[in-house]
From TrEMBL, chains A, B, C, D:
Residues 32-41 have a biased composition (Basic residues). Substrate binds at residues 133, 207, 232, 262, 266. It catalyses: S-adenosyl-L-homocysteine + H2O = L-homocysteine + adenosine. Pathway: Amino-acid biosynthesis; L-homocysteine biosynthesis; L-homocysteine from S-adenosyl-L-homocysteine: step 1/1. SUPFAM superfamilies: Formate/glycerate dehydrogenase catalytic domain-like, NAD(P)-binding Rossmann-fold domains. It comes from the Eukaryota. This is Adenosylhomocysteinase. One of its GO terms (biological process) is S-adenosylmethionine cycle. Keywords: Hydrolase, NAD, One-carbon metabolism. Pfam families: AdoHcyase, AdoHcyase_NAD. NAD(+) binds at residues 298-303, 319, 422.
Length: 508, 508, 508, 508
């Protein structure tokens, strides 16, 4: 958890929280005192972060009118009006983005191909609630190609790419989403997906748990026909485990958040690239020779450290866990306490999943021009609130870049106000999203086709063999050729030739 | 100045050579038919590339009116009107950019500090013609602090940051430059710098040779008072060597293009970072596992290869020079001919300084989605012209990104239309510019203060000791502590304790 | 213990499985026809590999006489004769080796220090059967310092360092071991440890399971007083799990083979260094530019690949597992089938844990001078037997290096006859052994002090907290400073401030 | 020949110096007050270092008798007795070593092949004085294949591999050399090469200048027929420049020491590998997490730093030259003064070419177990003499490894007594030697075939084109495919299609 998908930022800001909580939440949604804590109640991607899904995101926005989509009458070119998007006329732009995304999502395209004969999702009626981006669109259209009917809402009020939503609507998908929904819009959209005359979902694909929650609250009877839930976020998974613990989970659920491929890609490999990207786009700084302290040496920290070291930065690491600390040592990083280096470093990066890792005291001691940013969890790692005091001046110098100025003229450079740098200030490579999307598709197929009794009313991890299958679908991208075991070798190793190849505890 | 690198390779092509000689060559300056065309004669910074000087470059542009600056009456807050910029009111924005730049230009700031007693440029009257950016502003204000009077024009019709120009004008610098000058504006601005009642330059700082050319042509008598020329671009240096060869150079000139620090920084270290930055900003691609061919293993190629290898790409190299080829081998890259890998690579990067390295035939054979870009020389390396044929469709998908589509649907992704990727699609770190600017400042000081006879009417390299001094001024940025030789050691090595420390042929 | 790695993969091959079960299996222990044969049943350390424990190993060997230690009357300087070693007079040499080892085993020395007040092993009577090296000696003397009485035999007939055994005997440890024991000697030594008048062990420290087996077979009643078994090898652990499954395990056992630190250190970090060391010592080859194929991308393969890439080799990887394959891709290695590159590579390295990965057919196709070696499992990975055919000539060119010559003159260079390169041709860093030894000591302490009922008659993994403790004891070596959680942070994360810090499934 | 600089250990020990000086040296050999200073007078490879040329070096040594070769009557199998080696019967062992070396010296083998028609050295009578190793043998036999007659002596009294010398004698080469020559033997051998009835050399291949000196002194008339000298060592080159300056050089001489390929390979690439090898073979230490300070960031230092960083060490750098210092910063190393880190580092490595870089004061402050070694110049960098004081105890723990023990028990680990680690404790890869040997062969061909007047009585560098040719001959080893310029490209670049491709000042 400490980990990844940090992405789906959760924050404790009561205003935003309010927006997606209910007056009368059931109790299980109120009791989250522990580990994950408050942050699991709501998710929100800050407005700024939405820029980053695609560099092309905003090219038609300025021409948008201000009428609420709910008040518009729109039809797609086939006369269909079962959708609600910002502007159906933007469909062509969105289609191009989808086509670009398709090129980097080979696994989903392969699934489509394989499904030309059999339709593993024939009969599936999927209701989904995710970020609506070009990559999601490729997933949705793949689900369609596999035989499913889909209805879709956004899981975040800011993250929808209007052009992509339009393209989906134009293609006949009932999509209910736009960028800048109000709290009320948000639930209205979800409801429009679920509450349909003559159509009832039998599968749920959720990201954050809001859709699941809505059905629990408003249409509990629907669960009688639902074969399963596929949930992808830390928050949503946590909610499901809570339900399960409380004995209230009434269908099987698949936790796709903890698959190996997803974890390694989203964290180690993705952060290795996005730390550089995020810092460059915001500060144009040179990495060579810079002194950097990375707080936390989990997968995210490992990725950040490897990249910065490779670019010629001198990297220090802080850790609380002696095992990760020893890894940092063996990988060639000085393990320090933050205090020991805070006066000398040029950059401070948090990747701990913890809170108040960088305190006001640290901030006070940083040298002039020090850059401070967060690659870890939510916006809790840097105590940004402590900087909102009268003697400090804030100066926004660029989008996502603030100078905080001390009375003596010292400035620190705060990126994304302490929110996730990679989500706010860089893009997430499509290829990474492809892995997640493929995992989701396979989880849907698995749950939908599983024989009665294979899955009970509990939360499951994707079988390792499917994890391996997701990986194998991505190998052709790299023109990578897998070796097959001979019968003799398989016997020698005691393995099935088709996998799974490792015990569950294997660490990769 | 941005004109970086070995790029501006001197070459024997008679057409180009002609263009940069200038015995009686009016036709040269008259034939500048298109926007890009004009400037590409000497340093090809395309319009698009100007975006990249600073991420903050454009934030006030949209509010600009369309009146030509030459037709405006503007005064700075002290009532001074000896300047011509887009809009003096933007001065405050520009000042902030300058202040940010100052933080990464420690060497110039150190020079200012040291000059508080003695003013090594007291009495110097410097006329300058360079890109006008925040970094140039720091240089100009440093020259001022060292005692010089300056007048300045832009060396490129597109690259001026209007806000910075405004800030300089507000501070009292006679600056004549704006973004989007016409050909006529260009020479008018230069002339306004030189042709002043009661002021005559005694030093020239040039980037590209246009200012020098103008004085040669229009005010040859001025050279009587001019103590020297400092020139920074390959093109301008080449022009000076031509003049020298022809016996027409009438003052000493300093070639600051070939200093070690400049070359290693501008090429190896800078490209190591900008190749990643340029590719990310344009394509959001993931580097891990991608197959890349880098054409050319000079300093630029070495930087690109090192960075991509570090990010997990599989890199192939092509070379014509067996020594560089052997280095590529020892550094762990497969040395291939382009034909051998062209069908399989995901990215093609040229860094050769050559022409037609990537031909239409290569382009025809690339796989779908292959990215093609140039980090080397001008826009000659990829035969982009060969793609302008009727059967291919061009689709601009983002700024600086074109899809070129074959009849069978294959697309290649062409970046910056084959112009320099790092200049067009990423920013140049201030720190790198700092090294160049410091070298320029020291060259001015050296020429201005050199005793009669030290320099003749010839082109000189900066003395190695000064090169070492530039480097030493940048060490404090890294909190780097140099060791001093003991007397005994200096004697043993036969070196002066203060350097120079290496023979001229040392390769670093 | 040296028996490193995942290597000792548990497998379903019934032949092998049988051999390490031991219900009524006298024939197993009787069939040990050849020197190597005998021991290779459990842990295959070949004779040659024993050279490598320490570069200093052999300096006194040549002066040894040929009398069997069993026939000698030896006393240490205090008149004690309860031991049997090669030559007690070598004690001083051994002591120096032990002292050198102590310097790189800081964790054990720290344990000694902490135990000055409390003696956590007071009353413990430990019988041990491990390799007898300087590192083991540090462990034994640490156990002594912690309050234990120890008696010790060797787990391998070749691996004993006679000088070290002498030093231990001189210090009063009843040690029964020498280099070059016969089969009969082997069991005699074990028996002398166990079968003592007036002393009965209450703890077992085993490496391979032979000691445990002997007690099961000969003195089953001893288990009444035995509090637990600590076992470190894959083979021994497998035997224990078999006993447990069969309901025959009558005391708790601790599997110290699968701790994180041990696995990561023994495999990833250790192999990263020893692949280079082993290749250099045997072939003096240059790594730069060489083409290498590494079969298998588990921890061992990852270490080999990282090191060779860093030294400028071009590395290809083969894999059967798509997840590891995808990791190889993302880390920048071409994933191939062995056949695709076998003709072009300069080095072939196996790290799969599998058998016949390199077949005669592959060997036939390798190019002249190709180097073939194994870093993986036992000696099964390369089909060395297939090279024992009349048309091929074997030429031993150096110790551990054979040229196998084809009729057409082609040679391949086979290292260590396909046995483990790092064990045969390089040394294992003391620091790595320190981690294992510390884990063993802590496991003994844990089992010995555990309250009644904490552990049942089953096989346990060391609690994660102890794993973390082992790591923390090694941090001072690196002058590494761990950060402590604040109360507030611990609460936020739902963690105890002293760990454990990660869930059991965490992958590191 | 073994190449470079640092290696050819010079020492001021008067005993050894005496051994290769003359009573009545001419004055030019006495005046060497400057840069290179005293160290150029003599060279000696310490006995220990000779072990390292080949791991196989010593396998027949123990059986050698003690009779001086000069007193033996030996004939080869063809009845020829014009040689003097230790034992002609060892020829077969030597031949095998030569054959192994041939495999890694592809360029020389290629030269042999190309010379099958024309014999570019037909008529050449070459007298040589170099280390006599398998690699030299490949060079000599190549010269023979190119048409030359050769006579050879050793340039060092310890470095001869007796078996190789025997193999050469068996093949008919008049070789006069053995391991362990006396001073008198040394000059006797040289004289036997030169002073022959009916044979007079017309080319000299020298390594260190002793042969050249001998001819100058004893047979000055020989120079009338000598076409040129090829000299490879720093020392010998320095002597030649002295002669040239003094107007006493009477034939052209070729300095093959400063070619690009030689410098980059011998230093950067070779040291990158040998620093690891040397440390492992002597100390078996683990690199991961170790703190290392590398003194000097020239090519050797760059190689050491890159390798250690890649293995997970934390590396600090000291420098006196600000340009190299800035490179160290950009490459990611903290630049410090030695004093700042001397208390904390685990390893100190000198690569400066300077003297007393590590002083007694530094040694006093090092922590326990710190390893100290030299990769730079001679044995001057570490002030080893300062450790020869009564209060310190020296303990030789392994070959080339001393513990120096302070009164308080602190030990430092001194490798090779401060002489060159790579020469003393690791082997030099044949491939590196191949580059030097090829350069020597080409220099001989060039001088021998140059038309009258091309070379005067001066010291020359090998033409860049030949440097490039040497490189090109080594590319096939890596299956590397060079790209050829098209006519159009060559014209554009103003280059000849066959090179040279770079200006002389190019830095690579």
């Amino acid at each position: 958890m400490l980990s990844n998908k940090k992405k789906y930022i959760v924050n404790g800001n009561s205003g935003i929280k309010a927006q997606i909580q209910f007056a009368d939440q059931k109790q299980e949604f109120n009791k989250r005192p522990t580990k994950i804590g408050r942050r699991s109640l709501s998710r929100s991607i800050s407005q700024s972060s939405t820029d980053s899904y695609s560099s092309a995101a905003s090219y038609t926005d300025s021409s948008d009118d201000e009428t609420s989509p709910r008040d518009k009458q729109q039809k797609n070119s086939k006369g269909n009006s079962d959708f609600c998007v910002k502007n159906i006329k933007q469909a062509e732009f969105g289609r191009r983005e989808i086509e670009i995304a398709e090129q980097e999502m080979p696994a989903l395209m392969a699934l489509r191909k394989r499904a030309q004969g059999e339709k593993p999702l024939a009969g599936a009626k999927i209701v989904g609630c995710t970020h609506i981006t070009a990559q999601t669109a490729v997933l949705m259209e793949t689900l369609g190609a596999l035989g499913a009917q889909c209805r879709w809402a956004a899981c975040n009020i800011y993250s929808t790419l209007n052009e992509v939503a339009a393209a989906l609507a134009e293609s006949g998908f009932p999509v209910f989403a736009w960028k800048g929904e109000s709290e009320d819009d948000f639930w209205w959209c979800i409801d429009r997906c679920v509450n349909v005359e003559g159509w009832q979902p039998n599968m749920i694909l959720d990201d954050g748990g809001d859709l699941t929650h809505w059905i629990y609250k408003k249409y509990p009877n629907m669960f009688k026909k639902i074969k399963g839930i596929v949930e992808e976020s830390v928050t949503g998974v946590h909610r499901l485990y809570q339900l399960s613990k409380a004995g209230k989970l009434c269908v099987p659920a698949m936790n796709v958040n903890d698959s190996v491929t997803k974890q390694k890609f989203d964290n180690l490999y993705c952060c290795r690239e996005s730390i550089l990207d995020g810092l460059k786009r915001t500060t144009d700084m040179m990495f060579g020779g810079k002194q950097v302290v990375v707080c936390g040496y989990g997968e995210v920290g490992k990725g950040c450290c490897a990249a910065l070291k490779a670019m010629g930065s001198i990297v220090y690491v802080t850790e609380i866990d002696p095992i990760c600390a020893l890894q940092a040592c063996m990988d060639g990083f000085r393990l320090v306490k933050l205090n020991e280096v805070i006066r000398q470093v040029d950059i401070v990066i948090t990747c701990t999943g913890n809170k108040n890792v960088v305190t006001r005291e640290h901030l006070d001691r940083m040298k002039n021009s020090c850059i401070v940013c967060n690659m870890g969890h939510s916006n809790t790692e840097i105590d940004v609130a402590s900087l909102r005091t009268p003697e400090l001046t804030w100066e926004r110098v660029r989008s996502q870049v603030d100078h905080v100025i001390w009375p003596d003229g010292k400035r620190i450079v705060l990126l994304a106000e302490g929110r996730l740098l990679n989500l706010s200030c860089s893009t997430v490579p499509t290829f990474v999203l492809s892995i997640t999307a493929t995992t989701q598709a396979l989880a849907l197929i698995e749950l939908y086709n599983a024989p009665e009794g294979r899955y009970k009313q509990d939360v499951y991890l994707l079988p390792k063999k499917m994890d391996e299958y997701v990986a194998s679908l991505h190998l052709p991208t790299f023109d990578a050729h897998l070796t097959e075991l001979t019968d003799e070798q398989a016997k020698y190793l005691g393995l099935n030739k088709n996998g799974p190849f490792k015990p569950n505890y294997y660490r990769y």
